[in-house]
Amino acid sequence: MQSLRSLAQLSRISAAAGRIRVIVPEIPSLGPSLLPRWRAVAKHNVINRLHRHSNLHISSALRRSSETEGQTEGPLWKTPRTMPMDKYEYDLRPVFATATMAACHGGVSKKRMLTRGSCPTTDNKVVFCTGGAGSICSAQVRAMVHLGANACIIGRNVEKTENMAKDIATARKGAKVLGLGAVDVRKPEALVAAAERCAKELGSIDFVIAGAAGNFLATIDQLSPNALKSVMDIDVLGSYNTVKATLPYLVESANKYKVDGKTRPKAGTGGRIIFVSATLHYSGTPLQSHVSIAKAGVDAMSVSVAIEQGPKGITSNVIAPGPIADTEGMARLATDASRKETPRLIPSQRMGYVKEIADATIYLFSDAGNFVNGETIVVDGGQWHTQAVDKGAFKYPDFLLSGETVSGVAGMKKSKL
Ligand code: COA
């Protein structure tokens, strides 16, 4: 390695016909196994020198080409970067705007765009969301619409879906939000028709949120086959039907809005799907076997979509909300006692808000979430990690906060004090 470094001092820069090249002396005696490593080290060395003594712009361009080579050749994986970063690599200010409204870059000043939070230059990105009239999904869509997207929300109840669409549209002047009611995610043909209508009326489908879900509280022995089937059909088949109906549009969008992680995508991102799941099945939850089984399937589906469609530019991820305040789920499923008790069992000591699910959504759909694929983002204040606490006498978090040591069990540690 040392000798390669000193040999690398012999390499030089050539600038001709507007192109800059690093000329690396050939050393045939190195043999085929060492030659690629030699070329990479030599090139890196030149770029370092150039950076120290010369024009940063030129060295950045060279570094970029050198790193791209490193991705396929291998040796640069082991060479830590010594260069300053390009602005794109650390400047996140425009990211959440570019997620949906890249056209703003040419349309308004960055300052105006960031302070207004909306953009007069519509860029026609479209969100397609099932369960979009619900408390969580409507917040996800509203945040996207506020940033510049248009949307189609899908629901079973016509009035509820249409009213919610009108309400979401108030998040940004000029926003187009279609409320497509009477669509049951269990019916594939209904979803295909909804996706067709959405793309036809709004121009595309760039982001999908598969959020429609069914839930109630019952033990497994209280469930009829049809009860389990209903939840499986809504959550698992419904998510699958959503994927099938929207995938062609997502692939088109991913092709149009390519990202490489190195340069700011001029027209933002596209071709992304988020499944709204749960944490119930991580450690097991009584009265929720049907949903646990279904959400485990949804999680697996998201990974499959990531693996199979990722090479086409699609990203597929799961958001798993914990207990979120003021939602339909809480209203339908929580008792007064559990609503009161739940915050104590959450490490963050409170319930979440729909805004916090929307935040994760924007992250995954934005240029900041480019390399997150086949993953689950749990937004629960750490709750699922404590699903097993309070099983004994050590009340959470009172016992931890008291500073007491464990007593009353056989396996206690003997004090050395
Ligand atoms: N306990 C046990 N079984 C129940 C139940 C409960 N609380 N609620 C419904 N079921 C059973 C029904 O008895 C029926 O089974 P059966 O035919 O053997 O009697 C089966 O589930 C289907 O019920 P049905 O009301 O006909 O289905 P639906 O398609 O109209 O509704 C649900 C689907 C059951 C999932 C319903 O809870 C729903 O519509 N949920 C949507 C809203 C929602 O849950 N959002 C999620 C918030 S977290």
Tell me what you see in this structure:
This protein is α/β, with parallel strands linked by helices and 417 residues long. It has helices at 2-8, 31-53, 56-73, 95-101, 104-107, 110-116, 135-147, 158-169, 188-202, 225-256, 280-283, 289-309, 328-333, 336-341, 354-365, 398-402; strands at 12-16, 19-23, 126-130, 150-154, 177-180, 207-210, 272-276, 315-321, 376-379. Strands 5-4-3-6-7-8-9 form a seven-stranded parallel beta sheet, sandwiched between helices. A two-stranded antiparallel ribbon has the order 1-2. α1 packs across α2 and α2 packs antiparallel against α3 (56-73). The chain is globular. It binds coenzyme A (COA). Residues 213-216, 218, 222-224, 226-227, 230-231, 234, 328-329, 332 line the site of coenzyme A. It catalyses: a (2E,4E)-dienoyl-CoA + NADPH + H(+) = a 4,5-saturated-(3E)-enoyl-CoA + NADP(+); a (2E,4Z)-dienoyl-CoA + NADPH + H(+) = a 4,5-saturated-(3E)-enoyl-CoA + NADP(+). One of its GO terms (biological process) is fatty acid catabolic process. GO terms for molecular function: 2,4-dienoyl-CoA reductase (NADPH) activity. It is an enzyme of class 1 (oxidoreductase). Keywords: NADP, Oxidoreductase.
